Predict the structure.
Amino acid sequence: MKPLPLPIATLPLAAMGIGLLAAWSLFVGVSDVSLATLFDGGATDQATQVLLVSRLPRTLALILAGAAMAVSGLLLQMLVRNRFVEPSTAGTAESAIFGMMMVSLLAPGMPVLGRMAVASLCALAGTGLFLAILRQVPLRSPLVVPLVGIMLGGVITAMTEFIAYRQDLIQSVRAWETGDFSAILLGRYELLWLSAALTGVAYLAADRFTVAGMGRDVATNLGIDHRKVMALGLVIVSMTTAAVIATCGMIPFLGLIVPNVVSLVRGDNMRGSLPWVALMGAGLVLACDIAGRLVIHPYEIPIGTMMGVIGSALFLYLLLRRNGHAG
Amino acid sequence: MIDVKTVTKRYNGTVVVDGVSLSLPAGGVISLIGANGAGKSTLLSIISRLLPMSSGTVEIDGLDVTTTPGEVLARRLSILRQDNQIMSRLTVEDLVAFGRYPHSKGRLTDEDRGHIRNALRYLDLEPLAGRFLDELSGGQRQRAFIAMVLCQDTEYILLDEPLNNLDVKHAVAMMKLFRRTADEFGKTIVLVLHDINFASCYSDRIVAMRDGRVVHQGPPEVIITPEVIHDVYGVEAQVMENAGQRIALYYQ
């Protein structure tokens, strides 16, 4: 029935591919962890420790954050009905960072869950502001939408950095702005399970989001409360973005590229496309992180930078390829 | 029955629909005609709860459209506006299947699948079922949307300019399909039409609007007359009778 006759079996196949990448990710790094050292009596202790405390959490964090950010991008695209938005082109991510910075300033002792809650609220407010501006601006081209979001994000970032500069918090802000998984350890990534749960909620409501993506009138005709679906989606996107930023920092472009590629091949019926978006998001982040660890071994390039390079190239390709189609 | 009572719609002081009262009995094809800006589309959107009204009430079989839950109305009334801009890449079959959402909430039963197959067949969309909407022509896309609305299988079906983008062949097929849906399944079909001759040939009843008010209503033989057409559109027309159907000529 689909234009590209992909048999169902390709989804498990893709999942297996991600599994292989994940396995590879476990064995890349400065410390010598390999099947040999793991089973070898002498080094067992140290290798197992590194695997359980550092490598496994890092790999899980990559998968969870990648899937969640890609799905957030998809959700935002359906809700705003524009192909070029994602949390970093809608003011969401910048607002979450503003929230993180304000917590560090005003309540530095707050536990990480509380920080994330504040960041989520800020992200929600920032995205709401973005949508309110969109209602006021005449949208002559679909490209105006992300431009508005990028400008809004720029203004918020300027505020954040002004305060951070005055209060000597620039380093923390940079850490949230640039995704980096090198500091992920056991006990410092578990927040991401929350974003995985939110991704699950998005899947359960996939039909409603698909209908919302057809616009308010069609949604109303089909008996769906457009405002409720919109609110649910924005809460999921804001909380996911905040959780990812609080844990490992922003991963740019991911939410833009992955949903667009999946849309080209699988279409936008979210029940079918969301699992693909989640898998491909995890896969792309894993691949970028592994590459970042290998390129200047034994040092690392942070994933934010890797994604920036690979992502902008892929994005340009999509932009030129789809051209008139994209709106 | 659709019961419209003194409905008024204002936009920043401009009155678009002006105290319209209208009662449309269930069953049959009803056409709304009138010049551009007469308020037809606005009235249709108000009846189908897509637009809030400034004052007045609309009831569908006794259900107030402003207070009845959306999902209840969605099983009783369907609406298709004109200009459906959809950026989503959905296949024709996916789109039509979403017409069953009010009934199945996404879990398609065999009955739902039957409705989907029929809708695709009636609208000549079977060869296009697996194609994405953004790969279709305007007319094909229009047919896909109408298939979705028919698939919803509601008592009342409201369509704003359903013949938009359709060639002569598909426009005639579409009107015949509406006629058949009304006759065989007892549905009530309310259409906003620009072509008064399609309205004349296929409607049980025509409602003519001008400046936000209903100025004439009745069966085609009452409405399709030179006097009424002049009153509604301000043009001189000749009316011919051909095989029991009244055709207005207003081209010169």
Summary: Chain A has a mean pLDDT of 89. The two ends of chain A are 25 Å apart (CA to CA).
